[in-house]
Amino acid sequence: MPVNVAVVGATGAVGDLMRRVLVERQFPVKGIKFLASAASAGKTVEFNGKLYPVEAIRPEAFAGVQIVLSSTPSSVSKEFSPIAAKAGAIVVDNSSAWRMDPDCPLVVPEVNAEELHHIKKGIVANPNCVAIPLCVALKPLHDLGKVKRIIVSTYQSSSGKGAKGLADFEVQLKAFASGGPVPAPTSHRAQLAGNVITLDWTLDPNGYTEEENKVINETRKILGDQTMGVAPTCVRVPVKVAHSESINVEFFRPVSVEQAKAALAQAPGVVLMDETKGEFPQPIHAEGSDHTFVGRVRQDPSNAHALNLWVVADNLRKGAASNAVQCAEELVKRGIVK
Predict the structure, then answer these.
(1) CA-based end-to-end distance of the chain
(2) Of 45, 81, 61, 92, the residue nearest 325 (C-alpha)
(3) CA 78 to CA 74: how far, in whole Å?
(4) Is residue 16 within 8 Å of residue 44, measured between CB atoms?
(5) Do the Cβ atoms of 223 and 107 come closer than 8 Å?
(6) What is the DSSP string of 156-196?
C-alpha cells in the first residue's frame, strides 16, 4: 500500500540518507514532502531523480501525511512529533526524545517488530546507533540461552558527531598525515586523528556518560529484560563511518561457540564472518550496508557461561536511517498505517 511520507530534518546527514534508503529499498511512496528548519526552507533536495522543495517545519505541513521519518534535535522532536501524530501520522523519530517513554515503542525490526502494534502516542522511537547493532547481535543469543550480563566496549566513528564531526576529522587527518601541526578540534572534544577519545557527554554521578547510559537503558528496553546487566564503555576512534563493539556475553547456562554461530548465521540482519577463513568484521565492510557484521565468536576463557564477539555496523545507516525506514516498512506490511 503506497503511503504519504514526510522526511523531517531532510537536509541533515541522516535525513539525506533516509531519502536514499527509501529509494534503495523501494519503499512504497505515494507522495512525499521534505521538512527542515526555517533556515533550510526554500532549498531543494533530490529524491528518486526529481527535485523537491524543502518546507519549513510547521503544523500544517503534516496534513495528509501517514508516516513521518524524523531526524532532528530532541527539542524539535518534542515540539513537532506530537503535532504530526495528532494530525494522523505515525512518527518514526531518530532523536533520543521518546526512547524511554513507556508509551513509545523502541524498535529494531529484526528484534522486536511486534512492539509496533503498541503505539499509544503515534510515535515510534528509533534507538541509539550503538544499541541497534548490539541488539541485532544479542537477540538470537538471548533466545538461545538468555543473557544474564553483557560488557560492551564501543569504538565509535567520527560520523557519530554528524557532518561537522566528519569535517573536523578530515581536517585533522590531513594535517596529521602530512606531519604538520594538527589544528584544534572544532567538533570532537579532543584531537581524533591518531588518537582515541572518550565521548563528550555529561557524566552522571556514577561517572557514566549520556551515551553509555543510553546503551544500558535502551538495550534492556529493546530486548524486554530490565534485569539484564549492561556495562558499557564508549569511545571515539579515528574512523570515518561505522561503529565497532567488543561484547562479552554471559548467559544463565553454558552456550557453545558452535551453538552461538549457528544461531547468528540464521539471524535476520546478521552477516556472520568466519575467523578461521581470515574473515573478521571491519568498518570498511559495514560502511554502506544495512547489515550487522558479527565475528570473533569465541569462548571466554575465564567464564564457562560467557562468549566474546566483535560486531560492526554502519552507524548512519543501520544505526539510524535504515532502521527507521525498516520500521516504516513494518508499519505498512503489518497494516498498522491506515
Answers:
(1) 9
(2) 92
(3) 6
(4) no
(5) no
(6) E-GGGGHHHHHHHHHHHHHHHHHTSPPPPPSSSSS--TT--
Beta partners for residue 106, in sequence order: 125
What 8-state DSSP symbol labels residue 333?
H
Long-range pairs for 301-305: beta carbons < 8 A, 24 or more residues apart: 303/250, 304/254, 305/148, 305/250, 305/251, 305/252, 305/253, 305/254, 305/255
Burial class of residue 153 (count of CB atoms within 10 Å of its CB; 0-12, 13-18, 19+): middle
Return the active site residues. 129, 243
- Give the span between the Cα atoms of 10 and 24, in whole angstroms: 17
Report CA dihedral (117, 120, 123, 127) to the nearest 10 degrees: -70
Q: What is the dihedral of CA 191, 193, 197, 201, to 10 degrees?
A: 60
Locate the DSSP E strands across the chain. 3-8, 29-36, 44-47, 50-56, 67-70, 90-93, 123-125, 147-156, 197-198, 229-236, 243-251, 270-272, 292-299, 306-313
Each residue's pLDDT, cut to its tens digit, for the chain (338 residues) gives 899 999 999 998 899 999 999 999 999 999 999 999 999 999 999 999 999 999 999 999 999 999 999 999 999 999 999 999 999 999 999 999 999 999 999 999 999 999 999 999 999 999 999 999 999 999 999 999 999 999 999 999 999 998 899 999 999 999 999 999 999 999 999 999 999 999 876 778 888 999 999 999 999 999 999 999 999 999 999 999 999 999 999 999 999 999 999 999 999 999 999 988 999 999 998 999 999 999 999 999 999 999 999 999 999 999 999 999 999 999 999 999 97
Amino acid at 152: V
- Phi/psi at 311 (nearest 5 deg)? -130, 135
CB 267 within 8 A of CB 148: no
Sheet containing 147-156: give its strands across: 197-198, 229-236, 147-156, 243-251, 306-313, 292-299, 270-272
